Amino acid sequence: MAISVLIYEDNDLLRESLRNMFALCEETFVCSDFRSPVNIENEVRQVRPDVILLDIDMPDVNGIEAVKRTRRFDKDVAIIMLTVFDDNEHVFDAICAGASGYLLKKHISTRLFDAVTEVLHGGAPMSPSIARMVISSMHQKNATVKDYHLTPREKEVLSFLSKGNSYKLIAAEFSISVDTVRAHIKKIYEKLQVHSQTEAVSKAINEKLV
Fold first, then answer.
1. Is domain 152-206 annotated with CATH 3.90.1150.10?
2. What is the mean pLDDT of residues 185-203?
3. Is the pTM of this model over 0.70?
């Protein structure tokens, strides 16, 4: 069965070019296209596309808002953003909103059909520069999140604390006094910028510090 595509693009020439490209491929067809996603909820429900191609910068309702509206009632339809933007803000806003892929318009002629196939097989197609930026940002985020300058002993104490051990058990494990355990934990609180054992353990688990 042919893949149905719903297009939202306010550039009339580009929208027509996209229609023509899909018309030349026997495996795809455009079920409908619009200049604005202002009525995207009704339109998606009516035509039930396999893939939505969605520009970001459109009048009335932008593409990111359109993704959010769609995801409120359809978590599964594949949504590929088509855009000239390759900056962090637009990329991450689109991904967080629920976009399945992100393709720069300059790569449409060479990557569009592969992107449609990839997204329908569970992939997340992205232009190479976008993929590199996402990976780089994740690396930077991981590097900054985990650097609290905890000493090896403080990490050990935090690990035992996260497993529900009492101060007395921690003291026995490391052959130190309970007062020394308290001193370590006070330092841990200061470095993690928390005020309780619950906060410290929650942060340690969420940020994979232990």
1. no
2. 87
3. no
Question: What 3-state DSSP class applies to 182?
Answer: helix
The per-residue pLDDT for range 103-112, each reduced to its tens digit, is 989 999 999 9
Distance separating alpha carbons of residues 103 and 101, to the nearest angstrom: 7
| DSSP-derived 3-state class of residue 18 | helix
Which pLDDT score is estimated for 145?
53
Give the list of residues 6+ apart from residue 112 with CB closer than 8 angstroms, or none: 18, 21, 103
Task: Note the pLDDT tens digit of each residue in 22-40.
Answer: 999 999 999 999 999 999 9
pLDDT tens digit sequence for 25-82: 999 999 999 999 999 999 999 999 999 999 998 988 999 999 999 999 999 999 999 9
Give exposure, 158-197, as e/b (b: 16+ Cβ within 10 Å). Answer: bebbbeebebeebbeeeeeeeebbeebbeebeeebebeee
Q: State the Cα–Cα distance between residues 146 and 180, nearest whole angstrom.
A: 24
Establish whether domains 3-128 and 152-206 are of one fold: no
What is the domain partition of the chain in residue ranges?
A: 3-128, 152-206
Torsion of CA 70, 71, 73, 78, to 10 degrees: 80
3-128 CATH choice from 3.40.50.720, 3.10.180.10, 1.25.40.10, 3.40.50.2300: 3.40.50.2300
